[in-house]
Amino acid sequence: MNAFTEPVTLTGPLVRLVPLRPDHHDALVEAVRDGELWNRWYTSVPTPEEMAVYIQDKVAAREAGTANPWVVVRNADDQVLGITTFLGIDPLNRRVEIGATWQRAGAQGTGANPAAKLLLLAHAFDDLDAIAVEFRTHFHNRESRSAIERLGGKLDGVLRSHQIGYDGTLRDTAVYSVTAAEWPTVRVGLEYRLRARLEA
């Protein structure tokens, strides 16, 4: 385990990020059923039947030091909204990817996603002294790409035929990043968005 995989709870005004545990299973099954997220062809979201193994694999990756998964919980009602994860962890070069993120359909557009991203970016840059934080998504996932760009991520490039999808199709991966030099401006933008949401 390294600092990037330390299982810490991160708390903000809208949501908190809690280290993933096996007992989150039922709440995550309920979350993934909201919108049947596994049916979106350009994402990799577990079905309800796959959730137990999905959680087991993610917890094992944290213990192996290769990933750090969190459950996103809404503060107002303690509802579990979904998952977000530190991936591609490179402690030597102080780089990390935020990915493997999904949220229940009912939480989309509520500010929960940018609130979670603000917590993760602050943890990476302020607590862990990261040099850069990456975001990767399917080239055709316009919703995700727009969300990353609204966060302040800049497109580094597209990895063509980068991965083979579960259905055998080839995925082009759009790679974005936020650098340490850009973080103060990105933070202000995210805090402004969330302040408007909290004051609404």
Automatic annotation (TrEMBL):
**Gene symbol of the encoding locus:** ydaF_6
Please list the GO terms describing molecular function.
Answer: acyltransferase activity
Query: Which EC number(s) does UniProt give?
Result: 2.3.1.-
Q: Which domain of life is it from?
A: Bacteria
Source organism = Oerskovia enterophila
Cited PANTHER family:
BLL6696 PROTEIN, N-ACETYLTRANSFERASE DOMAIN-CONTAINING PROTEIN
- Tell me the Pfam families matching this sequence: Acetyltransf_3 (PF13302)
For this protein, the record's InterPro entries field holds: Acyl_CoA_acyltransferase (IPR016181), GNAT_dom (IPR000182)
Q: Which keywords belong to this entry?
A: Acyltransferase, Transferase
**This protein's record includes keyword RNA-binding:** no
Determine if DNA repair is one of this entry's keywords: no
Instruction: Tell me where in this chain the N-acetyltransferase domain is found.
Output: 16-153
Instruction: Tell me the enzyme class.
Output: transferase
Can you say what this protein is called? Ribosomal N-acetyltransferase YdaF
